[in-house]
């Protein structure tokens, strides 16, 4: 039986953790996507002792189990290396280790960690984008192996540079697969974000259903949401113009076994 999941961040911020889990359960969801990337880095649990950190996330896992909800995945930091701020390299390593440790404590198998992105990096030569992203993942792979959780690479969409809308470098499925294949670890997987992929179709990026088939069986996570092909709106499926029947047929074709996770702007 297919398991249906939803990102829980908005509900947690609005209602508190326990009530958010209760609402998800009563709404018929089987699992949740927990955003560890929302935790502040200069205060709170991310600067607490190891014991406090472990207790915090273990308690979240117990709260989910109370409502018989699976924490199917987590979302790590959207920010990565910076082209002009070298201090962000050490920062990225530190927070990614924390995000992956939190993922393990929550009992989730995978944490979404972004590529470097064109919005921050601009129009760099292809080899710069490839080499810097490879360097970043090579540096954080030991944390994935330490905590035995997957780094999930997420499909990208459009980027925006000084008001100009362009295709993000890693929206290209060939670049996505090249980077994935450069990651020398068993602790890696793929996340298809339908909204990102759809908004990049105007830049000759394959439609979500075609992208799914290109990536194939290593896709184990989803961010399902809709848009009109111009902006990453995170709308309910059916509110945009993604061809959902084709998307689900493609997932069946690759033998997808993960949760069907909604990532909505609620």
Describe this structure in words.
- The strands form 2 sheets. An 8-stranded parallel β-sheet has the order 9-8-5-4-3-2-1-10. The protein has a two-stranded antiparallel ribbon with strand order 6-7.
- It starts with a strand and ends with a strand.
- The model has no long low-confidence stretch (mean pLDDT 96).
- It has 10 helices and 10 strands.
- A hairpin with a 2-residue loop joins strand 6 (158-161) and strand 7 (164-167).
- 43% of the residues lie in helices and 17% in strands.
Instruction: Calculate the terminal CA-CA distance, rounded to whole Å.
Output: 26 Å
- How many strands in all? 10
Q: Oligomeric state of the chains? A: single chain
Strand order of the largest sheet: 9-8-5-4-3-2-1-10
Please count the helical segments: 10
Low-confidence stretches: none
What share of the residues does DSSP label as strand, in percent? 15-25%
- Report the radius of gyration as a whole number of Å: 18 Å
The major pleated sheet works out as: 8 strands, parallel
Portion of residues in helices? 40-55%
Rounded mean pLDDT score: 96
Helices and strands, in order, run as EHHEHEHEHHEEEHEHHEHE
Supply the helix-strand structural class: alpha/beta
Shape: globular
């Amino acid at each position: 039986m297919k398991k249906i999941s939803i990102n829980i961040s908005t509900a947690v911020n609005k209602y508190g953790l326990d009530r958010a889990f209760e609402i998800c359960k009563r709404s018929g969801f089987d699992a949740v996507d927990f955003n560890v990337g929302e935790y502040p880095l200069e205060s709170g649990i991310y600067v607490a002792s190891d014991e406090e950190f472990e207790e915090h996330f273990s308690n979240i896992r117990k709260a989910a189990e109370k409502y018989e909800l699976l924490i199917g995945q987590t979302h790590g930091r959207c920010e990565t290396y910076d082209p002009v701020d070298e201090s962000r390299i050490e920062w990225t390593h530190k927070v990614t280790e924390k995000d992956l440790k939190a993922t393990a404590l929550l009992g989730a198998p995978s944490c979404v960690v972004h590529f470097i992105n064109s919005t921050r990096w601009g129009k760099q030569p292809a080899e710069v984008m490839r080499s810097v992203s490879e360097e970043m993942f090579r540096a954080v792979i030991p944390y994935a192996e330490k905590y035995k959780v997957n780094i999930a690479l997420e499909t990208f969409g459009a980027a925006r540079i000084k008001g100009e809308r362009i295709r993000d470098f890693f929206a290209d499925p060939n670049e996505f697969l090249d980077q994935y294949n450069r990651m020398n670890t068993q602790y890696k997987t793929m996340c298809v974000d339908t909204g990102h992929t759809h908004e990049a179709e105007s830049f000759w990026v394959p439609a979500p259903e075609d992208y799914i088939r290109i990536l194939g069986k290593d896709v184990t996570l989803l961010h399902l949401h809709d848009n009109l092909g111009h902006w990453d709106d995170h709308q309910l499926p059916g509110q945009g113009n993604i061809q959902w029947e084709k998307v689900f047929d493609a997932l069946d074709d690759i033998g997808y076994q993960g949760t069907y996770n909604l990532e909505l702007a609620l």
